[in-house]
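Let us work through a complete example step by step.
Step 1: write down the sequence.
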Amino acid sequence: METLVDKDAVEGNLRLMANCFGVVHGGVGVLLVYATSLFSERCGSMGNGFFFAMTLPGSLLLAVPLLSLLGRKGCLLYSFCSYVVYAILFCVARAMQHGDQEHERCDQAGPVLLCIGSSLAGLAAGVMWTGQGSYFAYAAKLLSTGSDDEAHRQQATSWLAGVFAVRYLGWELSLKLFVSLVQYFGQVNLSIIALIAMATLATVVFAACDNLPKEVQKDPPGQMLGKLRSALALWPDATIWLLSPTNLAFGFGSAYMNGYFNSEIAAKIVGVDTIGALASVTVVTAAMASMGYSFLAKRGKALPLALGSLAGTHRHSNFRWMKGSSMKSQPCGQTRILLLAFGWKPGRDEHVGMARQSATHVKDEPNRTQQVLLFQAFAAESCAEGAHESWDSKYGKRVRASAETVAVPLVVPSAV
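Step 2: predict the structure and record it as tokens.
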């Protein structure tokens, strides 16, 4: 006989997890945004590069074993603690800065500490989202306990997704505005210390909270190896590799926004203290766009992806205008920066979100080959976006033109 579950307790537990997750992840997200402004562009970009580079082995190699070894809550706690360590090392690295920031070398003690912290946090990032996904899925399963109705299960999942998203985006928005406000008054170090304190408090609170009902804290060794083998068995799936260029495009775009754009354009025109406010604009636009994308996705995946590409085209027009020009001489420089902040997040999130959906559900499609080719075309176009943004050469134009030529005949039949 199935044991009854206190659904209010499950929902309260998820709310607490979402709040703690939002504080920790949002705080580190702010530091990643400011890294190239508080350190030299080269050193800050290198630190962020280590973060994103280590996310790959974290998600591929560490996530499944740690999830089986530590459990859902333990997996998240490991990630939270690693993020707190990164924030502390970020602060220490700032304190060790000497001389002119523009001529800061990456082999100095401060940037080396930053890269070490970034590597630790990157590994944890790969584990964090896997742990969060498992935690969320288990909570949704508990809420639908006793019901065999698939619609009821989907309703429970959708409700919890909204609960998590509101808190996650709310904290991300609030922290970016908070740091921007504190730095406006010249208290840069105080803003970093405040982020460390909040992330530490959130980690302690989450560690002290109750586990989800009936949660197994540790899998038996045989079951753990079975899960690892199941994860490795997905690697040969062509769908995953065909979608991977989308992640490359995301990497190119994030590197440009958090690196060159923040340090060389935004900081010099609107000031370092407003970078957090600009980043918060992207959060708001992403939240607003997600509602429209969800409605359009009911007609199929092609139309939302096409709109995501349109947002990408908008980004390119701004990128091309900003490169190689004296921004201070442009009377509409601040407007252009704001438009870029509005366009970056919706386009990026739509490509990434739809890619995740396709990787999850493409096997259930009646015509799997057509779906794979459709998303491969958009992935190629996304990768070409990254090449276009980074190379700024005739080769980037040719790559993108070729990808779009391939994409159009695949997308148009699927969109109608």
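Step 3: interpret the result. The longest helix spans residues 41-95.
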